[in-house]
Structure formats: structure tokens, C-alpha cells
Amino acid sequence: MGERFFNKKMILKIGTRGSKLALTQSRWVKEKVEEKHPDVRVELVRIKTTGDKILDSPLSKIGGKGLFVKEIEEALINKSIDMAVHSMKDVPAELPEVLTLSVFPERENPRDAIVSLGNLTIDQLSRGAKVGTSSLRRAAQLLHIRRDLAILPLRGNVDTRLRKLESGELHAIILATAGLKRLGFKDRISQVISSEHILPAIGQGALGLEVRREDEQTISLINFLNHTPTELTVRAERAFLKKLQGGCQVPVAGFARLDGETMHLAGMVAELDGTRLLRDDMKGEMNQAEKIGNTLAERLLDAGADKILARIYGAA
What we know:
By secondary structure, the protein is an alpha/beta fold. Helices cover 34% and strands 24% of the residues. It is globular and about 60 Å long.
């Protein structure tokens, strides 16, 4: 674990990406931990990931999984940091065996949002309007709703994406509502898109705190931040993703919510061009999160998602 104490004060090192959003999220965790444990000093360690280094290519073209977490997980494994703060939508379905996601703070709004010139909704965009997103999931669902839209690749942080919209290069962009809210851009949202129209990414809006399985000290320190409804719903979504073996290269989406003790999970797999979209939902007991995710994935695979995924992976 390295040297954890200095002048009788415990030091907790948090690994984070260097983007404004990642730092905002990590600073929130830092403040909460220091507030709860005055005897702990939290340090943020910025780590540049593969996804941060390659900005001129769509994520689906770079390939591989864990583009925004791999280097951070390596730092965790070699004990140069004690904990990582991730946006859950960036975390692959499978983790290194020695690591675990032990805490899921309360989730922000998981839905996607449209930010557009003229404050227009999806329905109000003109024919042929240029919409920016590098998410295959968003693109496929948008095209399923509006075949006439022109989907253009868009990478970079939230500020960069907003500037491209303001410059007139694009008529609209699609971003996560959670990120816009956390960065203070809530007033820029033209429309929060209903999950009935566009399902969000697996884990979108949720944070995950990753630690070494053996590090009981850190796990006990941060347990107070866990939000059980968030943990259960995200675990259901991730079980769905894992069964489908999905990643950045495929349009897969899932969203779980709790209604009392009942969990509702909706899932989707689509062709890249949105011509075919398979969507299903199911409900079950909230303590059966992984089972619900697995079962829904199996239903979609049986309905033809297996052929869609094989075709997309074969062309990748």
C-alpha cells in the first residue's frame, strides 16, 4: 500500500483522469471522505488514460475495452494509489481479479440530453440537421427515431463539444445529463431525453469507487458513501452488459430502476445504422440484480441480438 501515514494523519491517494468532469467527481469524493474522517488526508493523483491520449479517432475505432480506466487500474494494482473514482459507463464489464468496485455513490440523472442551437428538441430539429456524437449507442437510437439526421463524430471534453456547437459546425450535440449538471451546464440542456426514446449507457450517471479486494482499511473508510439502490441497479445493468460481451464498439444500452422492492430493467441492442433495434424489459426482485441482467440479455440474444453483435464484431 505504500506509506499511508504522515504526521499521524492517514493519506488516501485517489487515482483520477485529468478532465474537468473527472476532477469534479473526484474532488466531491475527497471532500466527503475528509468531512467524514478528519484524520484522513486525501490526495488526488491525475493519470492519463489511453482514451485521453487519442482524441482524433472515435472510441469504436480505437478498439479494446477500458480505454478510460486501464492505466488507473494498473496504478491501483501496483499500489501507487489506494482508490479510483470512475464514471461507471467507462468501466468494462470484467475487472482485474484483484480489484473490486466496493462503493456506488447515489446516482445522478442517467439520461442523455440534447444541447442544440435554438434550444430545439429532437423532434424540432430540421431535416438533415448535423448532430454530434461518437457514441454508437446514441447514434443508432437517434437514427432509429430520425432517419433524416446527419450524425457526425464528436470527441473531446464537454467544453470542447459545446464550442463546436457554438461555432455552427453542428446543429446539436448529445451528452450525458449527469456530466452537464456536475459541470454547472444544466441551463444549456435543450431536452432531457426520455429513456423510452433513447436508453442510456450502462452505468451512466453513476460513479464507482474501485479498490484492491485485500485493502480492508480503504473499503471500510469509504463504505459510508455507498447508495444501495444505485449499487443494485448498476449491478443489474453490468450483468446485462457482461452477458452480451458489449463494449465501445457496439450499440448496447441498459437502464435499471427500482420501484419499491421491484427492479425494472430495460435493455437494447441495435444495428449501427439504427435500421433494426431490439429492445426488451423485465422486472424482478431487487436482490436478484445479476439474474435479471443475465435473463434480459439472454432474451435479446434469442431474439436476434447474437446475429447483430456477430455482424458488428466481424466488421470491426
